[in-house]
Amino acid sequence: MNIENTKAQMRKGVLEFCILSVLKDKEAYTSEILDTLKEARLLVVEGTVYPLLTRLKNDGLLNYRWEESTSGPPRKYYELTELGKTFLNELNGTWTELSDAVNIITKQNQ
């Protein structure tokens, strides 16, 4: 079994939750989202994030707007919709339950 593949699958499983959480209090463009994820040591690449942002937008969880940039091409700023905020609140509850359960199980096995 390849441990790196398993670790990558675990990261992918929480990436949507993390992206929505990054956008919880403010809008951001893709590079800012990626920087925040990297600062938290969640290693992702642009090729993973762009399709996910598109899917979240198509699902009605995100909106975006274009803004001109003085240092390059226009930037697409993402923000949560009301549906996205509700969805994130639900995920927060589920994450807490799941995290608590995993912590109980993994502590029992030490």
Describe the model.
By secondary structure, this protein is of the alpha+beta class. It has a single domain (10-107), classed as Winged helix-like DNA-binding domain superfamily/Winged helix DNA-binding domain (Arc Repressor Mutant, subunit A). 64% of the residues lie in helices and 17% in strands. The protein has four helices and three strands. The protein has helices at residues 3-22, 30-39, 46-58, 82-108, and strands at residues 28-29, 62-69, 72-80. It has a three-stranded antiparallel sheet with strand order 1-3-2. The two termini are 22 Å apart.
Structural class given helices, strands, pairing? alpha+beta
Task: Give start-end ranges of low-pLDDT stretches.
Answer: none
User: What is the rounded Rg?
Assistant: 16 Å
Count the DSSP helices.
4
Per CATH, the class reads Mainly Alpha
**Strand/helix succession:** HEHHEEH
| Beta-strand residue percentage | 15-25%
Largest sheet composition: 3 strands, antiparallel
**Overall number of domains:** 1
Kindly state the mean pLDDT as a whole number?
91
CATH superfamily: Winged helix-like DNA-binding domain superfamily/Winged helix DNA-binding domain
Work out the number of β strands: 3
